[in-house]
Amino acid sequence: MNKVKTVYDHIRSNNIKTLLLVISFPLIFIALIFLFTWIVVPAEQALQTAISVAIPTFIACAVWLLISWAFGDSMMLHSAHAHEISDTDPKNREIFRSVENVALAAGLPTPKVYIIDDDSMNAFATGRSPKDATVALTRGIIKKLDKLELEGVIAHEMAHIGNRDIRLDMMLITGVGVTVFAADVILRAAIYGGNNRDDNKNSGAILLMVWLAFMVFNWIITPLLRMAVSRNREYAADATGAQITHNPQALANALRKITTDSRVECLDKVKSMATVCIANPSGPREFVSSLMATHPPVEERIKRLESMV
Which one is catalytic: 149, 151, 157, 234? Predict the structure, then answer.
C-alpha cells in the first residue's frame, strides 16, 4: 500500500528540490563557459577564463541584488498600481482582519496590505523579509472569492513570505538581468576589441565562445531552471498555505476560480512579475509558452491540494 503524502512531505520535498536547483545555477554557468572556451583553447586556459569571467559576474549580481533588495518591493507595487489599506478604513477593515488572522495562524508578523484596482483575480507578496513584507490583492479576488477561499489565497502568499521565496525571486531576476547585460558587453568586446593587432590572436575567439556560453545560459538554461524553481516554490506555497488554514480544499476552489480570470492589465508588459503572482497575470497561455511557464498546471496544483490529509 502506497503511503499517503502529508503536507509536511510536500513541503520537505519541494524545499530539497529548490535547494538543488539553486545550487545548480552557478555550477552550470561556470561549466558552460569552460566547455565553450575549451573548443578554442586548452583546458587549463579554458578553466582560467571561466573563473575570471564568473568572479566579476557574481560580484555584479551581488551589487545589483543589493539595489533590488532596497527598491524592488516598491517598484513591484508601483508596477501593479497598488495602494495601501489599513484597519482604520471601514471599507477594507474585513480584508485587513483576514490577513491579520492568517498571519497569526502562520506565526508571522502581519504584513502591509495593498489593493490593486483591477476586477481580475490575482495576488502576490513582496518585501525583503517577513518583518517588512507586503501582500497585494486585486479588487476582483476580494469580491469573487468567499471568505475561506480568500483566506486560502492569503495563506499561500504568507507561505511565500515564510518560505523566503521573495528573496529567491529577487536573486533569480537579478541574476538574469546581470548576465544578459554582461553578454552584450562581451559581444561588443569581441567585435571591437578582438580585431586589435596587439591582442592575442585567440582573444577574439575566446570572447566569442564566452558570449555563446552566456547566450545558452540566458535563453535556454536559465528559463528551464527558473521554471523548475518557480514551479517547486508554487507547490511548496500551496502545501504550506494548506497547512496554515487546515483547509486545502478552500485553496483548491480558489485556484479554480482564479484561473478563469487572472489577467492584470497593468502587468501585461512586466514579465518578471509573473513569478510572484499566484497565477499568470498575463492571462491564458499558448501551448508553447505554457511549457515554459513559471507556474505549474493548475489542474496538478488542485490535484495535490485535494490529496493532502
Answer: 157
